[in-house]
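Whiteboard transcription, Tuesday session. T.W. wrote the structure tokens on the left side:
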């Protein structure tokens, strides 16, 4: 099984300065997978250089290393969903429609399996929600999984309107961190 850890870096300097040091092309890479070997090497080298500067004290940062992180998740289950029923994830409301036309409408007036697949697709395409969660569907159930592993995902809200939809809770749950080390004022 693959292991997962999360680094959280708090650097008091402005975002533009830090981005220019860590990933010079970062502004162009938002939500992009870097698969080109030369680019991947370059970005890893820049990140390594940043941590080297922390280690020698030329940059002051608080670095939190979390291991054994698990992403929070939650579900919405459909049971004869109709138009105007809605699911809200992370403050973005997605509303059912028999003829969806907007970026926050999912298909109803068909089977719950198709409606669930439609909701998952619309959530993943939404430029706000897809920064918080990834949605998958299986049958009439949509599962929302926090993109950032750990306890932070436990704060992502999940609500619904309409009796034919049930949600697993008011927020995503299950996000955990097995261990955490905080390194302050450089490494």
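and on the right, the sequence the group agreed on:
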């Amino acid at each position: 099984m693959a292991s997962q850890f999360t680094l959280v870096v708090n650097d008091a300097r402005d975002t533009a300065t830090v981005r220019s040091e860590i990933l010079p092309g970062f502004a162009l890479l938002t939500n992009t997978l870097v698969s080109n070997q030369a680019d991947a090497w370059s970005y890893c080298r820049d990140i390594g250089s940043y941590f080297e500067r922390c280690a020698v004290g030329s940059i002051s940062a608080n670095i939190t290393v979390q291991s054994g992180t698990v992403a929070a998740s939650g579900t919405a289950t459909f049971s004869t969903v109709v138009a105007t029923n809605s699911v809200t994830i992370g403050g973005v409301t997605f509303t059912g429609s028999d003829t969806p036309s907007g970026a926050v409408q999912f298909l109803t007036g068909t089977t719950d399996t198709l409606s669930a697949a439609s909701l998952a697709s619309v959530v993943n395409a939404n430029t706000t929600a897809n920064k918080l969660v990834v949605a998958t569907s299986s049958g009439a159930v949509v599962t929302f999984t926090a993109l950032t592993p750990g306890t932070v995902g436990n704060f992502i809200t999940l609500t619904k309107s309409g009796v034919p939809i049930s949600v697993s809770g008011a927020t995503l749950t299950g996000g955990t961190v097995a261990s955490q080390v905080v390194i302050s004022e450089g490494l």
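Someone added at the bottom: DSSP finds three helices and eleven strands in the chain.
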